[in-house]
């Protein structure tokens, strides 16, 4: 009664009329508020845990906050509060785990220029495709994964798996692209021999694709590919044990689908690559 009429009468007057101590009233108010916060925290904790697990244990507070705003009943929650709840639930993002960084092998001295010049923001689909390779352990032996990424929407458009780090592995990833290869305008990579060779040169000439190589010893010239592989290692390669190449290929296909269609990207305004591509022009 007092709470419902607080906008009309003073709390002191109503407490006096009802012969209730003000301290008793405020104690009950605080008790009700505490109970309500506990109920809200329980519901919020369940949503945060669901989002975290759906992200394959990858999302931190920033992306979880974005996902909470997408709910049917959006929840406006600070990142600090999300962080407290995650700590209480023992939710630790894969990105908090220290990762081993191997030394790069020496690059070649090819005269091909860096035509991209770090213009990583592209406004047209397939205007520039970048690529790189990384290693994945399969049954105690190193295997390699090659990914092709469209700079327009950061979509992984092609990929391949093999035992050796060769031009054939790159060629297989190129062949896996479902889009029309004639639409690709530029192909940019680092100076690894698996990229700069006659097999790849012939393929690029066939589809009239311009070649671009990073400057010698400068990973920043291929920063998007480098960043994509950091994500790939953290979210996929470091989280699984592969006993066979077939298992790796199956799980890689599943991850690429999730990466393109479900995983939100900060550089895309927290949209998925497919959502970004389907935006009206």
Task: Outline the structure in words.
- This protein has helices at 11-18, 22-54, 61-68, 79-89, 167-175, 198-206, 223-235, 245-261, 273-277; strands at residues 128-138, 141-150, 155-162, 186-189, 210-213.
- With 281 residues, it is α/β, with parallel strands linked by helices.
- Strands 3-2-1-4-5 form a 5-stranded mixed β-sheet, with helices on both faces.
- The longest helix has 33 residues, at 22-54.
- It is elongated, with a radius of gyration of 27 Å.
Set out the fold topology.
Blueprint lengths: L10 H8 L3 H33 L6 H8 L10 H11 L38 E11 L2 E10 L4 E8 L4 H9 L10 E4 L8 H9 L3 E4 L9 H13 L9 H17 L11 H5 L4
Parallel strand pairs: 1-4, 4-5
Antiparallel strand pairs: 1-2, 2-3
Helix pairs in contact: 2-4, 3-4
Attribute tags:
40% helix; 9 helices; alpha/beta; 281 residues; 5-stranded mixed beta sheet
